[in-house]
Design goal:
By secondary structure, this protein is mainly α. The chain has 2 domains: 2-57, no CATH class; 85-272, hpI Integrase, Chain A (Orthogonal Bundle), CATH 1.10.443. It has helices at residues 2-9, 19-31, 37-57, 85-94, 99-109, 113-118, 156-168, 188-203, 211-223, 228-235, 240-247, 254-266, and strands at residues 124-125, 128-130, 134-136, 139-141, 151-153. Strand 3 (134-136) and strand 4 (139-141) form a beta hairpin.
Length: 279
């Protein structure tokens, strides 16, 4: 959030800011056309939290300058995307390893991009993956919420891929699941730019972002008849309304048939990519 705000704050100090200054920042951000109404709401909430903390810590005196600002009129939020099961399978089969296992992991667990980067082998046991950290812009932090710090069940299809991926790494017992050449957590944006995007472009498949896998998992589970509270637990949302409103998407009627096909395909050894075979 701060990375988005920083270019608009110039040399403004927290203790010197007034409501007019915060309003000017919000207005200027909207004029760029880069921020929709939801983004601006989140930014205003973030700024209000910053000043609330500054007041509590004694770094600022006076009323919270964000409180009396107004949300500038801006474009509405665009409809977000959720990958279908057919798209997920096609994308996994289109890219080389280890990127294919990255996509399978995010698609079949619903982890966030930062959580994917922060995955550790020592947290994978008994058929579950414990999410203990998130890495954003190279900085390791706690997961987004208390509920986010929870184990995720791993289906057999993904477990097989992770086993082969681990073997290719030399069967480590600890460390990042997805590494760069230096053994550090891989940068997912670099993997996307250098490996995933070129492979998808070559096959005509469209990329709609990492988070579309998370929405896709919620939507696909919902279409399979899984109840919303269970989906909330799998995605580790703090509130089921977030799951229902933002993650479960209405899909075309023919997607039901695609999901049934996918369910069968997961148990069909004939769809296992040849590159998964250990020589």
């Amino acid at each position: 959030m701060w990375e988005q705000l920083k270019p608009f704050c110039d040399a403004l100090w927290i203790r010197d800011a007034r409501t007019r200054d915060i309003q000017s920042i919000l207005d200027t951000m909207v004029q760029t056309g880069r921020f929709n109404v939801t983004s601006v709401k989140h930014i205003k909430s973030f700024l209000s939290g910053v000043y609330r903390l500054a007041l509590q810590q004694g770094y600022y005196e006076g009323p919270n300058p964000v409180r009396e600002t107004s949300l500038p009129r801006t474009r509405p939020s665009e409809e977000t995307y959720a990958y279908s099961l057919e798209e997920v399978l096609a994308m996994i089969n289109a890219v080389p390893e280890p990127a294919a296992t990255m996509l399978a992991t995010v698609a079949f667990t619903g982890v966030r991009k930062g959580e994917l980067r922060g995955m550790l082998w020592e947290n994978y046991r008994d058929g579950e993956f414990l999410i203990s950290r998130s890495i954003w812009h190279g900085i390791a932090t706690e997961p987004k919420s208390k509920k986010s710090k929870a184990p995720i069940p791993i289906i057999n299809n993904l477990a097989a891929r992770l086993a082969l991926h681990r073997e290719r790494q030399g069967t480590p017992i600890a460390g990042p699941v997805f590494q760069n050449r230096l053994g550090k957590p891989a940068d997912m944006n670099n993997v996307l730019r250098r490996t995933i995007q070129p492979a998808l472009n070559a096959t005509g498949l469209q990329w709609h972002g990492w988070h579309a896998f998370r929405r896709g998992l919620a939507t696909n589970l919902h279409r399979l008849g899984v109840d919303d509270l269970t989906i909330q637990a799998i995605l580790r949302h703090s509130n089921v309304s977030v799951t229902q409103t933002c993650y479960i998407k209405t899909v075309r009627a023919d997607a039901v048939a695609a999901m049934e096909k996918f369910e069968i395909a997961l148990n069909d050894t004939k769809v296992t990519p040849k590159r998964l075979t250990v020589m």
